[in-house]
Amino acid sequence: MSSQHKIPGSCWRAMIEGAFYANSVRKTNMKELYSLAVKQPEVVTTSEPFFAPERFGLPADARILVSNDGGIVGRTARARLLVRELKEDRDRFQSLLGEAVYALNRREGLWLEGVVGLHPDFMVKAHLLSPVTDAKNMLDWGINFSPWMKPWSELYEKSRPLDEPDIMVIADPEWRHPDFPNGLVIIDEAQNCIAILGLRYFGERKKGTLTLAWTIGVRQNMVACHGGIKKIGDKPPVAVFGLSGSGKSTITNSHDHEGMLNEDEKVTVIHDDAFLIDLENNFTVAIEPSLFDKTDAVKFDDPDIKYFYSVQNLGVTTLPDGRRKLVASDIRNPNGRCLKARDMFNHADFCERPGAVIWLQKDPSLPPICKANQTALAVAMGSLSTMRAKGVENVSAKELAKLVIEPFANPFRVHPLKVDCHQFKKLFKLGTCCYIMNTHAFGLPGKQVDIPKELSLAIVTELVREKIKWKPWREFPGLLIPQNGNELFGKNFDRKYKPKKDREYLDFLRDRMQDRITYLSNKRDIEHDMESAFIDPLVAARTVIDNILNPI
Q: Which listed residue, of 55, 333, 456, 512, carries a Cα 20 to 30 Å from 439's Cα?
């Protein structure tokens, strides 16, 4: 909790906070927001029951509401603006924000209070201001975080004071400006405030709030994590980090690993999207009580729908009996989403520090599993990768082969990347092990062998059981590979997935290493946000391959 009232320390904070106190603004609650959202013109009320509506003070007969956002059904990263990076344009954007606040305050506005963080040592009060016409997004924000009501308000009052100002978010989806047709997001992370302008998608509000929560956590000597974390039995927790489509949620939320777990290996899920690791007090805390998940794998009349609270960008159909049912599976559009309860599996709000960090990669040059035995290399391999989607981007075959990299799978980070590097370095030095899992396919282009999710789950199972025996990967110093893969994962494991030593494969591996080196070097040399210590292990590994390919 915040220890005391904080006087605004910047013009950005003063403008954003001041917007909450206009005569046009009044405080609201979840019950009112639901009643307003039901009447919102573009919202669809389905016949699907809202899961546990009493949890949020809603009517017992509350239904799942659908909001569809038009042509934009995902985040708009290019709209983001960090005020600490502004130079000569500072006055211009201050004026833009001032005009945006004026326009917002000329309409009826609603103020919703909530709590971010689910551990008594990390709870921050948060505030959202939006026009009354955006009630559905406000309702979803309250569901995703913890609205200011029991039990969360009582927990907050008993929580550890933090020397931080409250999080303050204003969001106006009706804002328009000819210079910013894709919207504008103004972030002052030092003052815990954000303005989300011209963007309808709920994920902008969720990730904007998380961005500030992660930044607060880092200032409290925590590790900001965009990933999943779970416990299996009485073993130390496993943290899983990966870009979209890498299997992060599949691995985190699997309750039995496709039947591979024993009765005494009960899974407890903490969260599959956002958490913080306290480096001083040995705890990991979820930031949100709910899950915001894709619905691409949700079938018609899927039993999981009973755990849904709310959905965004999904289709609806009417059955002959008049019931309105959800149509998911990304039939209507890509990136359909739902807010749902963690009640669908055993869960907890926090746990101890993870014993293992798994970097999920979609990098065909890597085998399904490696272990890092050098701290700096463990951090460097947190440059998580994926492959470009063929047909989605108009690029050459050479560009298609290159990795797309996002450090620690967190495109929402606003603090310097070097800070995250050092936080993860501290975590590994405390004894957390680092593993690299390729969940995509292994091998050269045109000759790749798929890595099924069943194999990935089996690998996580054996990692937790500490059954994998390791041997050095000679061509990639600092990484270890399994020496008993056939024994644990089937007799064809080595034939399919053991790294080769021929020139064609080593050239391929070297090119993928170079993708990482180039990316991190640009971060160091152009953005001045990376250190050579986290690049040198990759350069050393590339040099080994160079010497094999071109012996002196």
A: 333
Asked whether residue 102 falls in the same domain as residue 203, the answer is yes
Query: For residue 418, is it within any domain?
Result: yes
> Alpha-carbon torsion 136, 138, 143, 147, what sign?
negative
In DSSP terms, 383 is beta-bridged to 407
Q: What is the pLDDT of residues 328-386, one digit of tens each?
A: 999 999 999 999 999 999 999 999 999 999 999 999 999 999 999 999 999 999 988 77
Q: Are strands 441-442 and 324-327 parallel, antiparallel or unpaired?
A: unpaired
Contact 73, 335 (CB under 8 A): yes
Domain boundary among 500, 521, 537: 500
- In 10 A of CB 347, how many CB atoms? 18
Model confidence pLDDT, tens digit, residues 286-320 = 999 999 999 999 999 999 999 999 999 999 999 99
Determine the structural domain holding residue 212 and report its residue range: 11-44+67-221
Which has the closest alpha carbon to 203: 300, 90, 111, 67? 67
- Is pTM beyond 0.85 here? yes
* Contact present, 65 and 43 (Cβ < 8 Å): yes
**Distance of CA 210 to CAs 69, 155, 450, 511, Å?**
21, 20, 34, 35
Residue 280 lies in a domain: no
The answer to the question of residue 134 being in a domain is: yes
- Cα–Cα distance for residue pair 411/213, rounded to 1 Å: 14
CATH code for the domain of 190: 3.40.449.10
